[in-house]
Design goal:
This protein is mostly helical. It has one domain. About 75% of the residues lie in helices and about 0% in strands. It has 2 helices and no strands. Helix 1 runs antiparallel to helix 2. It is elongated. The relative contact order is 0.20.
Length: about 70
């Protein structure tokens, strides 16, 4: 799928928030004392990665402007 200029702009703007989710979720869980082991940290990192990927795909596909 070729991305148009609007989708590229959306992808660039969403990438910052996705990075924040990936890094921020495990850090917040650690700060609130929810992490007991490295297994939990990697679990939250994986969940953050999945959420970030879902949001990225959702926003890029949602910004597709249909052609006439």
């Amino acid at each position: 799928m070729a991305l148009d200029s609007e989708q590229k702009k959306v992808l660039k703007s969403v990438s910052g928030s996705c990075l924040g989710i990936i890094v921020g979720l495990p850090l917040l869980m650690w700060a609130f004392g929810k992490l007991d082991s490295w297994k939990d940290a990697f679990l939250y990192l994986g969940v953050g990665l999945l959420v970030a990927l879902f949001l990225g795909v959702f926003y890029v596909l949602g910004s597709k402007i249909p052609r006439k």
